[in-house]
Structure formats: structure tokens, C-alpha cells
Specification:
With about 325 residues, this protein is α/β, with parallel strands linked by helices. Helix content is about 40%, strand content about 10%. The protein is built from twelve helices and nine strands. Strands 1, 2, 3, 8 and 9 form a five-stranded parallel β-sheet that branches. Strands 4-5-7-6 form a four-stranded mixed β-sheet, sandwiched between helices.
Length: about 325
């Protein structure tokens, strides 16, 4: 009798070209340049090869544009879970008022449902942006879970690197001053937990980082390591999964569109780590990592993981 594999939820933050340009402070994002027609078929083909159904966090603005409808409908038609990644994809969502936050989430819901036929039950803030107002809005609107936390100590370092590659004004840098979070994000739990929102609760599913060390190991990070040594990247990934198994952490891992795109596809985004690689080489490295994941875990959408955790009735409250 074979041992049952532990669950790993897998999601894609479907950030589009314009949203990266916007956060980076690049001109031309207002015309909403898109690579969804290119990248969505690649992602779906890869997932189909592994036989996986996962979660896609979709930006409402993309759902509102007719040019993206075919790509987004293909995701839903393939049987994947659709979740909410805000409407405007602004990593300074935490600065919104409560009224602005509710409007942002509601507009995204409407546009995403119109484009895909699915009403989102999960939410992830852009750039892991999170606020009390966001949690309150999600509870009020009946969401199953939030997934906006990345428990790592490396947020300030990632922000420094990001700012180093931009030409942002002082005002724009101030707006993005907690992009990727602060050092204290590393103190957050790795396992799911409940936020207490008044007399109600909301499940939080963190993006998993390496137990104890709190080092990231989502696939964009692994592909960056692989630009120096594919062997070390795979060893790092194996070690992270082994630590999760030892600490009884069922991972929730994260993909981005740029994990499936190379510098030959979108030269405008060459400032991103690992974007100097050609798409063919990058895809080959990614698929090796995904194959390793599938050997050690049963991959599922985030809603499956959320319902399992909620039914277990052993979740600790947040502090």
C-alpha cells in the first residue's frame, strides 16, 4: 500500500505586463499591454501535462478588457479555480480607505465573473499588500480565504533590489515603501490560521517559505537561483520540501507568468530576475521543478486546501 502524498496548493498570480510596468514606474502601462494570449496557453499546457487543477488569481482590470476575455475564459474552461487579485493591481492597496478597498474588491469580482463565469472565493493582495480594511471587506463579502502574506525576513532586501532597478520618484517610492513587506513579516505563521474580524473569522493561507529559516522558495525565486546553478536550485527546493514534510507544513506555492516567459518574449521586462533567459531554457528548468513537486505532493487548488484546514477544526487564532 503506497503512502498518501501530502497536499500542496498551487496558484498563479496572473500579473499582466502592464501591471509590472505600472509598479516599476514605466511609461506606457496606461494602454494595458498584455501577454495573456501568449502565456496563458503555455501555463495551461504545462498544467494539463501534469494533470493538475490549480488556482489563478486574476486582476479585475484584465477581466474588464475584451482583448483578454478569450485567454481568461480558457482558464475557467480548463477547470481551474478563479480568485481575486484586486482590480487595479496596486501594491499600495493597504493605503486605501475602507470604502476604496470595498470598491476595489467588488469591481474586481464583477469583472472577473463577467470574464470567466466564476465568482472568486479567494483573494491575494498585489505585492502581498494587506490591511485590516481588506480583511473586513473580504469577511463582509463572504470570501473563503485570504492569501496575502509571505512570511519571510527578506522583504526589505527584495524592495531594495526592486528600487535599484527603477527610476521612481521619491513620491512613488514612498507609495511603495512597504512593497514585499518588512522584516517582521518573517514572524508570521507558515501554517494557515484565522483572523478575528469582529465576531467573524477569515482563513489566512500564507505563501509558504522554508520552515525555520523563512527563506522564499516560490518558483520565481528558484528560477533566479537557477541562473547561477540549476543544480543548487533543485537542491534548495528539495531541502525546502523536506523541511515542510518534517514540520508538517502542507505548502502553498506560487507561480507567476514570468516563470513561463523569457527575455525573448517580453524584452520590456528584462529588469526582472531570470528574465535574461530564453523561454525554452526557462520552461525546461521550471518543468523539472514542477516534476519534483508532483513526486512529493498531491497538487490541488487553494480552495481544496482551505476546506481541508477549516474542516480539521484545529486552526490557531491569529495574535
Amino acid at each position: 500500500m503506497t503512502e498518501e502524498l501530502p497536499i500542496c496548493s498551487l496558484s498563479v498570480d496572473l500579473d499582466n505586463q502592464w501591471s509590472y510596468m505600472k509598479t516599476h514606474g514605466d511609461a506606457g502601462w496606461e494602454s494595458f499591454p498584455s501577454y495573456l494570449d501568449l502565456v496563458v496557453p503555455r501555463i495551461l499546457e504545462t498544467l494539463d501535462r501534469f494533470g493538475w487543477k490549480i488556482t489563478f488569481f486574476i486582476v479585475g482590470q484584465d477581466g474588464a478588457l475584451e482583448k483578454n476575455r478569450e485567454a481568461l475564459q480558457a482558464i475557467a474552461a480548463a477547470g481551474h479555480e478563479i480568485s481575486n487579485h484586486s482590480f487595479n493591481h496596486e501594491p499600495w492597496l493597504h493605503l486605501y480607505t475602507k470604502e476604496q478597498t470595498v470598491d476595489e474588491i467588488a469591481r474586481a469580482e464583477e469583472a472577473i465573473e463577467a470574464a470567466t463565469g466564476q465568482r472568486p472565493r479567494g483573494f491575494r493582495g498585489p505585492g502581498y499588500s494587506l490591511s485590516r480594511a481588506t480583511l473586513e471587506a473580504l469577511v463582509e463579502r463572504g470570501y473563503l480565504y485570504d492569501a496575502s502574506t509571505l512570511p519571510t525576513y527578506l522583504g526589505p532586501l527584495a524592495r531594495w533590489y526592486y528600487f535599484h532597478t527603477t527610476k521612481l520618484s521619491p513620491e512613488e517610492k514612498a507609495q511603495r515603501k512597504i512593497l514585499f513587506g518588512g522584516f517582521n513579516e518573517g514572524l508570521r505563521p507558515l501554517k494557515p490560521y484565522l483572523w478575528n474580524i469582529g465576531d467573524r473569522q477569515l482563513l489566512e493561507i500564507p505563501v509558504t517559505t522554508m520552515p525555520i529559516l523563512k527563506m522564499p522558495f516560490h518558483f520565481s525565486y528558484l528560477l533566479y537561483i537557477a541562473t547561477y546553478s540549476p543544480t543548487i536550485a533543485l537542491l534548495y527546493f528539495r531541502s525546502a520540501l523536506a523541511l515542510c514534510r518534517a514540520m508538517r507544513v502542507e505548502p502553498s506555492l506560487l507561480l507567476h507568468p514570468l516563470d513561463f516567459l523569457g527575455g525573448d518574449d517580453v524584452p520590456q521586462l528584462a529588469f526582472f530576475p531570470a528574465m535574461k533567459l530564453e523561454a525554452r531554457l526557462k520552461t525546461d528548468r521550471l518543468q523539472r521543478m514542477l516534476r519534483l513537486l508532483g513526486q512529493r505532493h498531491h497538487v490541488a487548488p487553494m480552495s481544496v486546501q482551505a476546506e481541508r484546514f477549516l474542516s480539521s477544526l484545529i486552526l490557531p487564532d491569529s495574535k
